[in-house]
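Hi F.,

I've been meaning to write this up properly since the lab meeting, where we talked about keeping a consistent format for the predictions we share between groups. The idea is simple: the sequence comes first, exactly as it goes in, then the structure tokens exactly as they come out, then a line or two of notes. No screenshots and no reformatting. I'm using this chain as the first example so we have something concrete to point to.
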Amino acid sequence: MSKTWRFLPYDVARVRELAAQLRISPILAQVLTARGYETAESARGFLDSKLTELHDPELLPGISDAADRVVAALKSNRKIVIYGDYDVDGVTSTALLWHCLKLAGGTVEYYLPHRLEEGYGLNCEALEKLHAADPQSLVVSVDCGICSVVEAARARELGLELIITDHHEMDATLPDAAVLVHPRLPGSKYPFGELCGVGVAFKLAWAVCARLGDGKKAEPRMREFLLAAIGLAAIGTVADVVPLVGENRVLVRYGLGALRERASLGLRALFGVTKLEEKKLFEAEDVGFALAPRINAAGRLGQARLAVELLTTDNAERAQMLASYLDEQNKTRQTVERRMVKQAKELVTEHPEWATHPVLVLAHYEWHAGIIGIVASRIAEHYQKPAVLIALNAQDGMGQGSARSFAGYDLHAGLASCSRHLTKFGGHQAAAGLRISADRIDEFRLAFCEKAGTFTASPRDLELQIDAEIRLAELTVQAVTELERLGPFGRSNPRPVFVSTRVELAEPPRTMGEGDRHLSLRLRHYGKVLRAVAFGRGEWAAEIAAAPGPLSISFAPVINRFRGQQNVELQLMDWKSEN
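Output, unedited:
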């Protein structure tokens, strides 16, 4: 279904003035003004964001107390256990803090719950085991714990010192831990509330490094660590799909450079299996489509510790072995994912009334609990509505679910209103997890649909925002390279999208990739021929081939860098027949 194309308004005179003031191309100036950067000062600030724009970590609620406790534990030679999460954000958070504390001479271990056996976040049994192993240890959670009221109470009962660092949505009651570190705690005045878990962990490491220095600045070796750690922060930030604006954009912008220049042995091994070692410049998409899925594959299949080991090992042979293994795990994940997507669509076909519901709740006994999240994203996008997918366990009658939003629907609020049907839930507006008894699913579906009411995506939600209409001849390598200054690209800061009309096929469309999932085109526009690709849109090949007359296309231009060659390529977003 073709989307509605909405052209962002701009002032022609302002574009001309901005281009002259900044000495940039009219195309870049038009994109900047269309996105709200209308003055030379604001546009320059966005294009040339500095590392110094990161906020002082001492502004983050709870961080001063947390850093003091961590440093005290280091000086007392107490064991510090980092309790992480099994996704990329949690894995990178764990590895980042581990590197920091190890470099500081600490006795450090990490604990990541088994995704399939323990589920997300803190659990009492794990805390009891950590306490039994060493009652004097300090436990620091990363990317989890802000809703762990029962678990924090158990830690306090045991006498186990617990620091919780997190970024997820909070419940009305906060856990009674020794310290809570969270950018959006009640009363918080922290300037940027959209940090992900690894962003918070980076700020804690920064505060610890400052205390180990002169109180304000880290000593040289710890400063070098922080500059390298921004690379891990970039991976987790991109993978967690938080808005790439403000501090997140700064972390990713400089983190991509750190990955290229200061990567660990494990990351370099991962670059090898993903062919990224050949690239001179990394982009956010390299993280999102190459690095993150492989790191995530370990946690999805219940082996998140291997991902942390990859990011922390100093053994080159072990790093290569782990990178290759995670690559194989990712291939397995892709196979399972394709089967699950097919089964999910079959369920909707078998229950046509579900297609009319404002949200989808699907459950299956053959689904893998570690992969339902990514499949829920595919289903939400396909049916254009929020989706909850539940992997059922025949042995204990329980289901583990993952929910993904669509068009801004607040999943956390929706699940909270139906919590009486759930054993456990947590997450945020866009993504959430839950546990539910199999015999409560039908009741939950009814309640969740009732809460969503008549929710449907508004026409605005289904719009494709267009930055400008241009001729393909304007897209020189130099022009597209200049547009990359707007990056890194991701949520809330997408690649510029353009429209060209009266475009013709230079040759018949063809599909590519496993299962003919993707589309490849060569397009001609007033004599200029460019290649275009549409990932996951193989079905467009026959439709475009049959379309009468010229086409209007919307696309994001990119530079395809391969074996020393640079060519402009179009990422096709949508198309329409002009006849």
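Notes:
The chain has a mean pLDDT of 94.
The radius of gyration is 25 Å.

If this format works for you, I'll send the rest the same way.

G.
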